[in-house]
């Protein structure tokens, strides 16, 4: 059994430790929810429960699925639970929706599962990019609840339908034989990025500097400072600006936060921290080239939608054509140096990436329509 620091599994000690930690931190609502003390959404109608996990992408996908189903079905109540609260993601996507309830979710202790099943009495349960909790799945099966797994690996209990995110997950579901239906693998996050971004960022940054180049490095915090140091020492820094971003972001390596930028031109050699995700689409469209070193799928699809030339880390889960692999910082810098001297190659790579994005987006739309029809037919 893996570690469960947030206490959402079935282990009693992990749940107790997380409960105590939350209460000491003043997060009693999260502790109570973990024990199953949830309130059903107000209003009339059966409940469909979207159960997200502990990542930003899981919460984002759950919100988008909930919103899409609300447009399809007005007769039901919709519940959304999560293991991390991302207000910037959740609030704008649920604003104005009626007959919904949201908050932290339950753990998988038997008492918590029994309590939440009694309180919500869901006739539909959508697992969204989260761990397949065995006690919850057993309880849902016993209650006759429709269960669908979206971007979620198989557990030990059968579900009505699985919507895998990639070929490996699809194979796992087929081999396990635990889904009545397994959809074609596709990443639905391709539907929820900006396909047409504002292209004025480059002109603002490079005002009066016709030859200024823009680069974007998105990677782990442990590698960021070293890359910035290498970039500053390279010939690229003499005529370009570098944007940096990633998880657990440390802005100490940057000269400027984009959230504090006054839209004035930037001189060559500047490092800009992309600390506001609302700028991601604009940066993806403005840069001459970039690097993706962490596995956020939403960033990947936004990068490809931007029509710029990217390379990826060897460990990236989407390290496939049309993006080449860069093994280390020096390889990234060599790739960017090559693209600086070969703009036609950069355009060709960017075009190939954008075609890949649109292929995934069209496929995701088909799978999404099938899911919504399934939920409509319940």
From TrEMBL:
Q: Tell me which InterPro entries the record gives.
A: Glycos_transf_N (IPR007507), Glycos_transf_N_sf (IPR038107)
Q: List its EC numbers.
A: 2.4.99.12
Q: Which reaction does it catalyse?
A: lipid IVA (E. coli) + CMP-3-deoxy-beta-D-manno-octulosonate = alpha-Kdo-(2->6)-lipid IVA (E. coli) + CMP + H(+)
What superkingdom does the record give?
A: Bacteria
One Pfam annotation reads Glycos_transf_N
Q: Which residue intervals define the domain 3-deoxy-D-manno-octulosonic-acid transferase N-terminal in the entry?
A: 32-151
What Gene3D superfamilies does the entry give? 3-Deoxy-D-manno-octulosonic-acid transferase, N-terminal domain
What does the record give as its pathway? Bacterial outer membrane biogenesis; LPS core biosynthesis
An MF annotation (GO) of this entry: Kdo transferase activity
Q: What is this protein called?
A: 3-deoxy-D-manno-octulosonic acid transferase
